[in-house]
Specification:
Largest sheet: 7 strands, mixed
Helix content: 25-40%
Structural class: alpha+beta
Number of strands: 9
Radius of gyration: 21 Å
Distance between the termini: 12 Å
């Protein structure tokens, strides 16, 4: 019936106070704070932060759906979630949080990681290994080479980009990875000086994707607003198509590749009987059920 509030200035103080029992629970976002190991019980907290791989649609290569699909299938999302985000992430094939109830009907639509199929798609597009000694694919004497950019100030996205580079090179795509400070990264995005980029966006609670698919979208980098996907999203907002139909169009068009939605950790006292199932929008939604 009584909640004691503490005035705490630093993360280190919060974790220390949790350790000595002065603090009962603390929600910890690994991407914002330095990872710590403390003696406490833990539960995962769903975040609405989507990590994704973006395409630059102005690159003629990406007019070929086989190329976009090959890249999407070559990305091992489970490996990225486990290694770049310490398993605090849930993989996804669609730009909606898997924890959202409306996404349950999309489970069977998800495409899986498959480097063999990815390689076959590149073969169909004419990008092959002309000689057994070639490391990268080429077509008409032009190597398949892409420039991937990422902000180097976030360790999770940086590790994610490095893994994507390795995974794409495994199927014969040469990747130049540019690890940039934030201002340089945003400048390259705005100027269209990229082929691929690793991004992260915090979606609003209503799962709006307008920042991607509207002409004034804040992160519509590389996305063509005249394509089928923008039209399908408008139809989805108007209710003339359902989420399954929109997801099918998204999967066919591949305007970008959703990778995962990050998660946070709730650290709490081992003496606390804590009911899981909260989200970042309301950390204390079920606090009435907590007890000692």
């Amino acid at each position: 019936e009584t909640i004691k509030l503490l005035d705490i200035s630093t993360v280190e103080n919060e974790l220390y106070l949790l350790q000595i029992g002065e603090l009962t629970c603390y929600c910890y976002d690994p991407s914002l704070e330095k990872a710590s190991r403390i003696s406490a019980s833990t539960a995962t907290v769903s975040l609405n932060n989507m990590v994704y791989l973006g395409f630059n649609s102005s690159n003629p290569l990406f007019s070929d759906k086989n190329i976009r699909n090959a890249i999407a299938m070559a990305v091992d999302k489970n490996s990225i979630a486990d290694n770049s985000y310490d398993s605090l992430a849930e993989v996804t094939s669609f730009p909606f949080n898997p924890a959202w109830s409306k996404t349950q009907s999309l489970k069977d639509e998800e495409s899986e990681f498959n480097s063999i199929t990815a390689s076959t798609l590149l073969d169909k597009s004419g990008y092959v290994f002309y000689y057994s000694t070639n490391k990268y694919r080429s077509k008409d004497n032009v190597y398949l080479k892409l420039d991937l950019i990422v902000n180097n100030e976030n360790s999770g996205k940086l590790n994610c980009a490095r893994m994507i580079k390795s995974q794409l090179e495994n199927i014969g795509i040469e990747v130049t990875l540019s690890e940039l400070d934030y201002d340089s990264y945003v400048s390259r995005l705005r100027d269209g000086l990229f082929d691929l980029y690793v991004g992260e966006v915090k979606l609003p609670a209503n799962m709006s994707l307008s920042m991607f698919f509207s002409p004034e979208g804040s992160i519509s980098y590389g996305i063509s607003n005249s394509g089928n996907i923008s039209s399908a999203y408008s139809d989805f907002l108007r209710g003339t198509i359902d989420i399954t139909t929109f997801a099918k169009v998204f999967d066919e068009e591949k305007p970008f590749v959703p990778i995962c939605f990050r998660q946070a950790l709730m650290y709490y006292s081992r003496e606390l009987k804590y009911e899981a199932g909260i989200s970042e929008n309301d950390i204390f939604s079920n606090i009435y059920s907590w007890s000692f």
